Every structure is written in C-alpha cells, then in structure tokens.
Amino acid sequence: MKENDVSRFSDLPVDELERRRLKSIGVMEERARSDFERHYQERCDRFYWGHGRCCAGCDHWSSEAGDFGECMSAPPVSGADVVRSLGFTFCSYTPPPGQPFTKRDHVCGAFKDDFDWQTLDPEYRQRIGAP
Description:
The protein is mainly alpha-helical. The chain has one domain. The chain is built from three helices and three strands; from the N terminus they run αββαβα. Strands 1-2-3 form a three-stranded antiparallel sheet. The longest helix has 38 residues, at 14-51. The protein is flat, with a radius of gyration of 22 Å.
C-alpha cells in the first residue's frame, strides 16, 4: 500500500497514524505485563497459604518472576555473593552489589506478614486458600 492509499482509511496524517499505532502497542504490552503480575502474585499467595511461613508470603521479599526474589531485610552483599545466592557456583559476569536472592520456600528469622488479607476479595482468598 502506498502512503497516499492510507487516506482511504483515515484523514489523519501517516505520522499520526504511526504514533497512535505505537501507542496502542505500548498499551497492549503494559496490559499483558499487568495481567502477568496479577497471575504471578496469585501464584505466590497460593504457595504461601499452602506451605505456611516462607519467603513467598514475606513482606521483605521482592520477586518479579520465577521462584526467586530479593530479600530486602538482609543487608546488601557483594556481587559475587548475589550470584552465589542464586545457586550458581560459577558465573562469568559479576553483578554489582545488591540484595541476596532466596527461593520462595525459604524461611528465615526475619519473616514478616503484616498484610491485612481480609481486605482482599473473598473469592480471591478462597482461590489462594487464605482464611
């Protein structure tokens, strides 16, 4: 299709159509990410209520995906220790210092759950096994 053929579909200039197309793609990617985050949070919540006290239910745990997350209550460690906390014995890349990682089923003395689970929808609480 030639550039002038676009006029059959819209009175908008081609650059405006492209701007809107790119904006639409961005919104769809954001929506997909939001859907994934909701799914992942529910997965972590269900694991927590099914297994009891663990990182998946801890207020100090920050995870974006997978079964690993950063323990925000632990002091920062060297990049080499960050890699070791992920279970790697060798890595050609050493990240900058940061928080150590733990698996979702890890339990430590800093566990904290101050979230008011009663504020959640009863159907959601039932799905994850919360009282």
